[in-house]
Amino acid sequence: MNISVCIGSSCHLKGSYSVIEKLRELIAQHGLENRVELAASFCLGKCTSDGVSVKFGDEIVAGVKLETLEDLFDTYVLKGEALK
Known about the structure:
Elements: E1 2-6, H1 9-13, H2 16-29, E2 37-41, E3 52-56, E4 59-64, H3 66-78
Parallel strand pairs: 1-2
Antiparallel strand pairs: 1-3, 3-4
Helix pairs in contact: 2-3
């Protein structure tokens, strides 16, 4: 599975680097380093959302915050079809 985190100006100001670090931790915590590729991305086109834009596989999720990241990781990565 590929995960891309927007690091464009808007998302940068909303904490994209903290989201990337937390995703790195979650990927390592679950032993998914060989199954999940984490990358930075420029604009994902959701600049007006209240948070960072993250693309899980083919789905863009806007408004991601550190407080919601673990639930999204669980939904899109751990329970997602891409890892099965």
